[in-house]
Structures are given as structure tokens and as C-alpha cells.
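Quick note —
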Amino acid sequence: MSVDIHGGIDGDGESTAPVWTAFGDLMSVLLGAFALILVAVIGVQLQLSSRLEDEMRQRAAEAQRLQTLEQALAGPLAAGRVTLVDGRIGIRGSVLFALNSAQLQPEGGELLRSLAGPLAGYLAARDELLMVSGFTDDRQVRRTGSALFEDNWELSAQRALTVTRALVAEGVPADSVFAAAFGAQQPVAPNDDADGRARNRRVEMAPVPRQRAAAQVGDGR
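Predicted structure written out below.
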């Protein structure tokens, strides 16, 4: 502290002013950073909330789709003639075809006739396609009679086509159904015994969204 010629006291006011200015600038920076972080956190929470709502809507729509399909197939399901697991309609191959054959048996034809009407109505109401998939066990195809198949891929393909054509003949629109072959791939049971192999010889039908199904067909060309 010093005394000027007028007797005044020269204090530290001027020296402390820059300190307060710097402190104020620092606080402004911290508040700005905090505001940015808060905005970012709120944005992330809103995104998570939106995704959760979308997922819940998708699950509700899927549950409704499965319920509608189950109602459409109530008769065959109650009779135990078909199964419905995760939206896939399953039919044992022995119901539709004799061993190593792609010719539809009378019992199989009757079953498909009972399914055609409900399936056509379901597909029309939801604008979906029906994918008919053929599967076999892992045993080599035996060439017997007129049934000459190169391998299980060809046998599963012919069976899927037979079912597809039968459904179309019974009223399912041709532009609403397509066939796919999986051969011995994707078994549902071990091929260690007769029962397991019988379960793997099957045909499955699954409704799929029309756009996705079209993309699948395009990818396979």
C-alpha cells in the first residue's frame, strides 16, 4: 500500500480485477460445457426411449401376427395335423410324401386343401408372401422307380414345388407363394435314429413380409 500526493490510499483493486475476469470466463466455459453435456445426455435418452418404443411396437405387431395366423389355422392345429412354432407352419414329410418321393399322397392333398383357404385369406389381409420350404434327412437319396433325384437338395426342392403348386391349385394366389429348398440342412432333430430322421423330413410354410421376401428371391438369382 502507498500514499499518493493527495493523501489517498492506493489499494489492490486494479490488480484483482483481472483475476475476477478470468474466474468469470472460466465459469462461463464450465457452464457452457455442462449445458452441452446435458443436451447430449437428454438426446441419448430420447433416442433410447424412441428405440424402446419402436421395439415394443414391433413386438406387439409380431405377437398380433402370430395370433392371427394361429386363429386362421385353428382347425388343423387342433387336429394335430400341423405345428406352428415361431410363425412357421410345419408338416411331417410322411404325411405329404412317401419315402424318397415328391408325389403328393391323398392324405397330404387333403391337408393342403384344408390349409389353402385360411392361408389365402391371411396373406391377402396382411399383404404377405408364403415361403414353402422343403427339408430332408441326411441319408443319401435312393433312386427308385421314376423318382430320380440327384441329391437331397433336388428332392427337397421338388417337394416344396409340389406343395406350392397344390396350394395354388386350391386358391392361394400364385404371386403370394414361392418355394425354397434346404436339403438336409437345418435339421430339427439328430439324424441318429428313425424318429429323428422322420422329423427332419418335413415341409415348412412361413409367411414373410412381401418386400423382404422379394429381396430374398432377388439375392438367390
